[in-house]
Amino acid sequence: MNASSTEKFDNSRANEYGKQSRIALAGYDTCHDLAACMLAASLGNAGSARILAVGAGGTAQEIIAMGSLEPGWRFMAVDPSEPMLAAATEQLRSHDLLERTDLHLGPVDDLPADESYDAATVIGVLHHLEGDEAKRALLQSIRARLKPGAPLIVAGNHYAYASQPLLLEAWGQRWRQNGASADEMKAKLGKILQGADPPHSEAAVQKLLHEAGFGETTRFFSSLFWGAWLTRRTG
User: Fold this and answer.
1) Could you tell me the CA-to-CA distances from 137 to 4, 36, 38, 87, 189 in Å, in that order?
2) Structural domains of the chain, with CATH
3) What's the pLDDT at 113?
4) What is the pTM of this model?
């Protein structure tokens, strides 16, 4: 993430991230569980693997899901936000996964260039990066640290929000149904419209991946604005 993206994830955002994410994304836990299943299928039911989890701060849910389902996997959790990584550390400790996880505060580019991973995840990250150049640069950094042919899970919002008024209204109604007042709904809708820059279509996600050196994509989850795909490093 760039500096402006990182600044959004301060202590107050980190502390409420788990609850907020599960309201904003219907099927939050299911998406992460399916990501673990898709990686296991792609890795051929590997008994051991090293997984790079980019943007794992906050809930660390991708690592919790993978770690509980695959006891032989180990993880590198990367996040540029100190409060978010601290929150993830507490979650990993409470799930007895801290000993299987290395933690890195900072960007992917700061990881050793000579280390390679069997697979990677980047979940809920791309739509927080402004512009295609930043999104593509992150994907290229991830690719450089994957083994040839290694799978990558990408998940996040993939519509220009204002282009989908019915989905936007449904998103707001989900907050109302979970107890948000009219003023809170308005504030949250304003935040989602101003605080992120998602790819504008599934085709745009695929284009970014292809330009960054990844192959064809398989979508395995969808929820309002959100989609999740599996692809592989080419070359």
Assistant:
1) 16, 25, 24, 26, 29
2) 3-165+196-232 (3.40.50.150)
3) 85
4) 0.91
